Task: structure prediction
Amino acid sequence: MKPTKGGKATLDDLLERLLDRGVVLNLDLIIGIADIPLIGINLRAAIAAIETMLDYGMMNVWDERIRAYAEERLSTKVPQLGEGEAVILEVRGSYLYSDGVYEAWRPVHVMLSNRRLVLFRKHPVEIIWEARHPEIVDARTCERASRTHGPEVVIEVRTKDGRELLLKSAKLGDILGGLDACRQGGA
Result:
């Protein structure tokens, strides 16, 4: 990174330089009142695209940590499967969260195994809702009014102990079909 001088530069030129080669800033600033120095700032910064930084040998430790974190995140499997349990379907979806006053659809992973239905988050690891197939007394699609998009189709699940779940997913048919097959002993 060698300093260069140019006549006129546009915003496009600046962005191209930032992403392609990077920019180094050296700043020495002294703030004072009545010729009495009060605050000193000494700043050295390199600004560039991550790929450029890595090419110059900068941010390698950060890059390794981020890659390790991403690999760990992608490999995290929740929940743990029991003896003889097999995953039939794992999809993304959302469930209706309500605390009595506030209500919102929250994203989750939906796992349907041959023994249970589980809604969970991977980060932070948390099981949101879980029911074994014998506990589920009803699972069906229903239409629900949406405040922003008009009517929407969701799955309503009820358990013997009175718990209810409203679930949305792009794979509603697959989830409901798998649930029906598991509850009837076909999975």
